[in-house]
Amino acid sequence: SELDITIASIYVEDALHFRNVPFRPDKLALYQVYQSKAIRYLFVVFPALLLGLALVENPAVKVLEVHWQAIFALELVCLIACASRVFHLRLCLQRGDFWSDVKNCAIMGSIFIMFVDMMVWLGYKVGEEKEVIRVSRILRPLLIINFSDNRNLRKLLRNIKKTVVDVLSVLVLIFLFIAIFAMMATKFFERRSLLDPHGDPYLDNFWDSYWNLYVLMTTANSPDVSLPAFRSEQAFFVFFMPFSVITTFVLMNILLAVVYKHYKMHLLEEVKVDVGIIQSNLFKAFSLLKDTNTDHISKNVWLKAYKDLGCPDNLQNLYWDYMVPNDELPGISLQAFFKITDLLSSEIEVVITKKTWLELNFPFIYNSSFSCYLRCAIEHFAFTLVYDALIVANAIVLSVQNAPAFLEDLFLALFNLEIILKIYTFGPRKFAKTAWNCYDCLVIWSATIFSLVVDVEGLHDTKNEEMSALFLDMVLTLRVLRLLKLLLSIPQLRLIVSTLMQIIPSMGSYALLLFLFYYSYAILGMELFAGKIINDTVNCGREELNGTDFVAENYCVLSFNNILYSFVILWTLTLVNQWHILTEGFVAVTSKASRLYFLSFHVLVVLIILNIFLAFVIEAFMLQI
Amino acid sequence: SELDITIASIYVEDALHFRNVPFRPDKLALYQVYQSKAIRYLFVVFPALLLGLALVENPAVKVLEVHWQAIFALELVCLIACASRVFHLRLCLQRGDFWSDVKNCAIMGSIFIMFVDMMVWLGYKVGEEKEVIRVSRILRPLLIINFSDNRNLRKLLRNIKKTVVDVLSVLVLIFLFIAIFAMMATKFFERRSLLDPHGDPYLDNFWDSYWNLYVLMTTANSPDVSLPAFRSEQAFFVFFMPFSVITTFVLMNILLAVVYKHYKMHLLEEVKVDVGIIQSNLFKAFSLLKDTNTDHISKNVWLKAYKDLGCPDNLQNLYWDYMVPNDELPGISLQAFFKITDLLSSEIEVVITKKTWLELNFPFIYNSSFSCYLRCAIEHFAFTLVYDALIVANAIVLSVQNAPAFLEDLFLALFNLEIILKIYTFGPRKFAKTAWNCYDCLVIWSATIFSLVVDVEGLHDTKNEEMSALFLDMVLTLRVLRLLKLLLSIPQLRLIVSTLMQIIPSMGSYALLLFLFYYSYAILGMELFAGKIINDTVNCGREELNGTDFVAENYCVLSFNNILYSFVILWTLTLVNQWHILTEGFVAVTSKASRLYFLSFHVLVVLIILNIFLAFVIEAFMLQI
Ligand code: NA
């Protein structure tokens, strides 16, 4: 029965974390270790390291280049670590339960492929020292997603998978629609033999027309693509205008509408799945804990389980009373037991109004009439108003060119005074509880220290001066951001901003997913395009690029030459603007097939992921405002 | 009582059209004339003419230039016509009722301003012959909106007005957020004195930074605006990236979410207003028609009112039975009377299966065994399949370069055969009921006639050849569009397309509103920028434009030199891409204040109207799929 109580508490724990692991009761201790916080946090490190390898692998970020053997060793360690964690889980489960989980198969599969890939790499390196394509690196995000305990991330991915299936018909509609217009364009312009601004034939074959019309749908080549036609015959406006209306404003809107519709639907499904997991876990726990005669959990058993759950000692009676409001009941019923997640997931905080350190130790000062007067003034809303005005004044002074330097010191002194006065009035503990206060401290104190150091030491060599200028800029930036605090005092904005704050954690999942997605595309991009474009050279170092828009727009700095550059270019592609010029640059140094890389990125990121994100924001505001 | 019945029938009529006009019962006949279809349609002509004047007014479309006196006369006629219609309404109403309607005040006001403006114009023309600014033309769309009977348009405008008020706080948030980042950018870059690609100072003052960051929010100058900073210090990526994330992907999404939220809310309000109008009208009608003893409408009275409503004779018993299902009732109750709008607005169609002309007159042919066999074959789904395949094959042949000419004739013959066979089987009446069949006839017959004419006559001079090529292209275009029919046969797409078809009428209101909006902006744009940029000259005819992107991108063809060009450039601005380059072009030939014109257009059209349109599409799909 002691064991049963422990098992039950683990079920409750799993319910709280929405875990659905059918662990073997005889491997209880092993499973507890597997799920312990320390181990879980430790095993976040290895996937992160694995991802981080891209910084040092070939093509590496210049300052971080490392010998390949070090990379090989590190990668091996990471893989072994990941494999060991999965093996740990395998020991806790029945063979069937382990392999029936697609997640585990995916992890084992990816680790195996990566291992084989490493061996091939080793073979090549030991043998001919020739550079080898390491495609398995694309799989790393897949490993991370399956490996991670981040439920939100996996949920999001599930939602995306389902939504993709649903919106496939809209995507097909879009692609077919463009195909029809591409046919018409080809028919129009092949006989006219117009030239585009580079003197190349204009929309004279199907695939080029298709590509250009797809880009036009994204508006990136508007109005340029229509101008040669428009100049030759102004009536062609009635070809391009309807195309834009229908694709950009109707089909894209329909895509979003369908994505939103299905996103909302799947959200509901996910909630049902979560409730199902919680209930099945709690039911298992209840079955273990209940008294078989009364079908209720007795107080005795409850108190033991309560200890196993690691809840605060002083609340056990509160919990009991909440679940057993009627003393005539023999204990906790199944119905009442289901309430336990509400109790455990809500943080019950005992609010104690503590006296400040100053009030306790020097009451004669703190409670003197002058001090009372001062504290009243500081707590008055006018004090906040004055300092809000000072923040604005400071921002204006910052943005005015050549403002007198003493003003800057004055503002710093005033803001320091504010912090001291606030700490005096509210005490350090209460002061630090407001996030904005901490932010103010960080910003003001770092600026103060920095200006003191500069005043005392001075800055001699130019290198130092540059670094200090950059640091000063950062501090200034952070200070100007305090203006955002003022926005919050506008009532109409507070609602919007508070909703925004509430969805930031969920937005983190989107950011992480996008990061992993970028990572795979960056690796693929580096395999395809690394070194093809060289910055700071004429025509980006390639004769083929001579005369292209890519060179004309000075985009040589946007390349796939290392993982950081790749992220920058992928970010640029995410913003869509000029993506066709970037594409044409890489097409020029490779082949037209490269368009597929950029096209697929656009479809997956802009059409699907960003639309799902938009659906998420809309739904958040629909539920909250 | 006869009069009462007529008045009641007018109330019912007004309820059907959601009109809420408190006409004077003693001016009944006048009001009936006012609302008669013929008069209503006639008075659509004058506002349309008034709008059309922009084609011939200075700066006129070249081929349409007209002497100013003709324009003056035409405008006067239009104004007098509009005024007379309002005067007509004034006669039907009490003084107070007329002036308490803001709509009427707006119409009278606009007509008065336009009239004064015309007199000033006349004065200038008669006196000095100097060109004069005619700002009142901007008011024309306002007149149209208030003048028109298009309820959807006014509803839409009301919704936009309300939504603008609601999203104002989000717009303020966006503008303030950009201001904060603009301050930071100024602080960063004024000390670095970087240069942009044109060699101008880079983000070194607040207003330029603000403008560039606003444009960056629209992604139009991405990545160009960040490249000078990125090249000098790659860490600046962390300034521009968060800005883009927050503005483009968070604030813009929030804007849409808030617009959608409020759009949905206002939609509900509008429905309530409509129901209110219907009910108050019907209540007034019922009060006039009811028997004061029984509080019901007797059958006698009903039959007279029914005639006044102009309903089909053969349905009067059906209507009666629908509203009085129980014979024991003394007549139509108020509750039942409210159902009348359902009856009158739904088109009850008597379906009669008629024999085809051929079957009636030549049954021995139509019913011969060969004919039966043939008809079975045509009605079989394989027939449709074969012709679907032919449409695809035809489209492919059209899009292949240099396909043999005889194939084209073959396809035409086959499609003609299809039409004949279908008419033979279904009869012309049933055939013509399907919109696609009519479309096919139009396309195929015009192509057939055209190719016959060309074969017989030949084309001699080049002018003719060019025109015929354009005509042929149009016919081909229409034919390729038949592929869209095929898309409808995919079940997953049918749902989407059917929803799309259902919202097309409402989309018409958006199109009309956007057109009127464009019109005002086009007039304003012509007053500000007409003639400033000249096509087909070096540097667009202006020294100031030398070296700008506007010239480099060959945008001289995009100007405000007449109303049609203005629409093209406003359309380009609606697609957002390159709008900053267009703006800089017009800024270069005027002043930086011109940015306000383009900025306000972007805020009103892209941020507000297009987002409301997007909300409308989303809501349509939420309700229908
Ligand atoms: Na763009």
Describe the structure.
The structure is a homodimer of 625-residue chains. Chain A is mainly alpha-helical and 625 residues long. Chain A is 73% helix and 0% strand. Chain A has 28 helices and no strands. In chain A, helix 24 (491-529) crosses helix 26 (563-574). The longest helix of chain A is centred in the middle third of the chain and has 53 residues, at 237-289. Chain A starts with a helix and ends with a helix. The interface between A and B is large, with 89 and 88 residues.
Brief overview:
By secondary structure, chain A is an all-alpha fold. Chain A has helices at residues 2-16, 28-35, 37-56, 68-92, 95-99, 102-127, 140-147, 151-190, 206-217, 227-232, 237-289, 299-308, 316-323, 334-337, 340-345, 357-361, 363-366, 369-379, 381-399, 405-433, 435-457, 462-480, 483-487, 491-529, 549-552, 563-574, 579-589, 595-624.
Q: Using the coordinates above, name the CATH class of the largest domain in chain A.
A: Mainly Alpha
Q: What is the quaternary state of this protein?
A: homodimer
Discrete helix count of chain A:
28
Biggest interface goes to: A-B, 89 and 88 residues
CATH topology of the largest domain in chain A: Four Helix Bundle (Hemerythrin (Met), subunit A)
Radius of gyration based on Cα positions of chain A: 31 Å
Low-confidence stretches of chain A: none
CATH superfamily of the largest domain in chain A: Voltage-gated potassium channels. Chain C
Calculate the mean pLDDT score of chain A and round it. 86
Topology of chain A as a string of helices (H) and strands (E): HHHHHHHHHHHHHHHHHHHHHHHHHHHH
Number of domains of chain A: 4
Helix content of chain A: over 70%
Cofactors and ligands: sodium ion
Tell me about the largest β-sheet of chain A: none
Q: Which architecture name of the largest domain in chain A does CATH use?
A: Up-down Bundle
